[in-house]
Design brief:
By secondary structure, this protein is of the alpha/beta class. The protein is built from 19 helices and 27 strands.
């Protein structure tokens, strides 16, 4: 894809004067992105320690941390290991070698894993027990429990488990990514008179990792649970009759799960992705987790088999797959131990009984999920599917979830004869298989399905409806910061805009034409798009704030993102800060910018919000000398988003909607409970209310405000 020429409406002037001699790209001005991400995971882990959070929610945060750390190793650590193998020395603005980064990651990750199990075993376990929710250890089983669990093992596990002895005829088996295994040390002769040694027991993924005991049969409480690993430990001898068990130790290996598609050789993206999916289960090993009491000799044996080093070994005092404890949350009906439920508000303008096209034709409508319902988005597509005046629907799909109401509505529209075009991103990480399935479903219904552009993920969130009204065609759009996914719309914060603005809708249609025809798009009217105009336009707007500050006016920027690591954008922010522009960055996860550096970033503050909902929306505010500009966007400020993805930023031009977004950004800046403040060394400190001030939680305030306004 060739980057077209663009007519910039804002000139970018080279900085002169006091900052001309400052090199804003010095390595010491940047934090390492991988270490920044692991620190975000630490902040998630601290939610499990937070006594103000309901107990079962704390357990859930522990599970989220575990899942996040798994993905960190599968993608981030795996990528760094590949760079080491290729001999890469420096690849990021901080100028730290991949080998040194891996060493730092190992040290910090070991600390976090130790903290994770300390939290589980010595804090949460005691608190749960006090609420009569118990994880019953083998030493605590009574006779009834032992009898019931032995029957469970014999009837539910023994028939489907196949222990694998290790000898010349039975080599070390292929171990699935993140699957639960046991290595068993044996003594005695097997059925053929040979001396036995080691065996591997693989636990099928279909089996539950947490078993709820039937309290009437087992003489126990209604919320007593046993780890599957404990059951295997207790009765593993049944798998090896006639032999003695010297030891049984659980382990789990994490593998490289990033898909590789050769963009130069590819001729069919769908087949290429399908071909790579199978290899994900058996990618190169990047981490070994083993029971804390596993002998060093056996650990070294496993490390050798997986071609890992000592720094890749993590000894765990508890279940190796902590994320499976999430099952407990759904099994226990204790509302007082969970967040108070809420019903997302539905703005009166777009109630399910309203004519949504008439509403949007009169005014733009802004939704803020999860505080406001995702239902109007689904209803918009359903109304479009059923409306005889609607001729065409165009949509991008990145993640949708199983049994998607959005996909079902598109299928219905196609079956009713409407022109339905869907850009499905096959390479949405860990959703590739689901997206292949939904693409087939849409094609079967008669929709036109394309897979974006090879080498450029389609991450933009766009929905366009073309409708005949009187003697002309009118276009309606929904544009957002989040995926068309009903479940995550209740868990992630995202903005979505309904609009019939002619210029914006024309832009959306042009982007769709670009994605389907590959033709060069004319300059867009309103939207900013990567990999073409987004980065240049944002830099120019930052430069404009710098110029205002240089003229003695107030320069002001607020940016809310998931990640900020692109050196070009950070350098632009440093330059603006050095001239006095006040910059607030609300960065949930990775942030490579160092705030508070004298003469460089002393006017920049970095805040991370970690709370009940995952902060996912991207919002940009420029004061612009009292003529504010506000954008919502699908793009983070990372190299991949700005240069290697199709992303959009949408201007919010309605004054009331602008004011609303700015006000909500200010809520986050006022948060003194769920906010974490970053210092210039990348260390985060949790905000606390000052003496005499009440706790202020932005997410709770938004729940209150939007419930009142609906």
């Amino acid at each position: 894809m060739t980057k077209p020429d663009t007519n910039k409406k804002i000139s970018k002037k080279k900085t002169s004067g006091k900052t001309a001699s400052i090199d804003f790209k010095k390595p010491e001005y940047y934090l390492n992105r991988q270490m920044s991400l692991i620190e975000f995971n630490w902040r998630v882990l601290q939610q499990a320690r937070d006594e103000s959070i309901p107990l079962l929610e704390r357990l859930r945060f522990l599970c989220i941390f575990s899942t996040n750390l798994d993905e960190f190793f599968e993608i981030r650590v795996a990528g760094m290991q590949q760079k080491v193998e290729l001999g890469a020395q420096h690849n990021e603005p901080d100028n730290i070698s991949p080998k040194q980064v891996l060493k730092s990651i190992s040290q910090r990750a070991h600390e976090l894993v130790d903290e994770q199990y300390q939290l589980l075993n010595h804090i949460l376990d005691d608190l749960l027990s006090a609420e009569n929710i118990r994880f019953v250890r083998r030493t605590e089983w009574n006779t009834c429990m032992d009898s019931w669990l032995k029957d469970y093992f014999d009837n539910e596990l023994l028939p489907i488990i196949s222990p694998l002895a290790l000898d010349p005829a039975h080599p070390f088996p292929r171990i699935l990514n993140k699957s639960l295994h046991f290595i068993v040390s044996l003594k005695g002769k097997d059925a053929f008179g040979r001396n036995s040694g080691l065996a591997i027991v693989q636990i099928p993924r279909a089996l539950p990792r947490i078993i709820q005991l039937p309290h009437e049969e087992c003489d126990c409480g209604p919320n007593d649970f046993v780890f599957l690993s404990s059951v295997v430990h207790a009765y593993v001898s049944s798998l090896f009759p006639g032999m003695n068990i010297k030891g049984c130790y659980q382990f789990r290996v994490t593998r490289n799960s990033d898909l590789y598609v050769d963009e130069e050789e590819i001729d069919d993206l769908l087949r290429a992705v399908e071909g790579e999916l199978g290899s994900r289960r058996y990618g190169d090993a990047v981490r070994l987790e083993a029971a804390h009491d596993c002998p060093e000799k056996i650990c070294n044996y496993l490390l050798d088999k997986f071609e890992l080093s000592e720094q890749d070994l993590y000894r765990v005092d508890g279940p190796v797959n902590v994320n499976r404890l999430n099952e407990v949350y759904d099994l226990i009906n204790r509302p007082e131990l969970k967040y108070k439920p809420f019903v997302p508000a539905i703005p009166t303008k777009v109630t399910l009984k309203s004519d949504i096209f008439e509403t949007i034709s009169n005014q733009d409508v802004l939704l803020h999920h999860p505080y406001e319902s995702f239902a109007p988005v689904v209803d918009f597509i359903r109304q479009a599917a059923n409306d005889p005046n609607v001729l065409a629907i165009k949509q991008t799909l990145y993640r949708t979830g199983p049994s998607s109401a959005v996909v079902n509505a598109l299928v219905k529209a196609a079956k009713l004869g409407k022109e339905v075009t869907v850009v499905v991103e096959l390479r949405a990480r860990f959703d590739e298989e689901a997206n292949i399935t939904l693409a087939a479903k849409l094609q079967e219904a008669g929709a036109h399905v394309v897979y974006g552009v090879v080498g450029y993920k389609t991450h933009a969130k766009m929905l366009l409806v073309i409708r005949r009204e009187a003697q002309h065609l009118r276009q309606y759009a929904h544009l957002g910061t989040g995926n068309y996914h009903s479940r995550t719309a209740r868990l992630y914060t995202d903005y979505g805009l309904f609009t019939s603005n002619k210029k914006i809708c024309e832009d959306v249609n042009r982007v769709f034409h670009q994605l389907t025809s590959m033709g060069q798009t004319k300059n867009l009217n309103k939207l900013l798009q990567s990999p073409f105009t987004l980065q240049d336009a944002l830099e120019a707007k930052i430069e404009r704030e710098r110029q205002h500050a240089a003229q003695g006016k107030e320069g002001r920027i607020i940016i809310k993102l998931n990640s900020l690591v692109d050196a070009e954008m950070i350098s632009a922010l440093y330059q603006a800060s050095s001239y006095g522009v006040k910059i607030d960055l609300l960065i949930r996860g990775m942030c490579a910018l160092r705030p508070g550096l004298a003469g460089v970033s002393e006017n920049i503050k970095v805040t991370s919000i970690v709370g009940r909902f995952l902060e996912h929306d991207r919002v940009i505010y420029f004061k612009n000398d009292e003529n504010p500009e506000v954008y919502i966007s699908s793009a983070d400020w990372m190299e991949r988003n700005l240069y290697h993805r199709v992303e959009i930023a949408i201007p919010i031009e309605n004054k009331a909607l602008q004011d609303r977004i700015i006000n909500e950004l200010e809520y986050y800046l006022l948060d003194n409970t769920q906010a974490w403040k970053m210092d210039q060394d990348g260390i985060y400190t949790r905000a606390t209310p000052e003496d005499g001030k009440e706790a202020f939680i932005a997410q709770e305030k938004l729940l209150e405000d939007l419930a009142e306004s609906s």
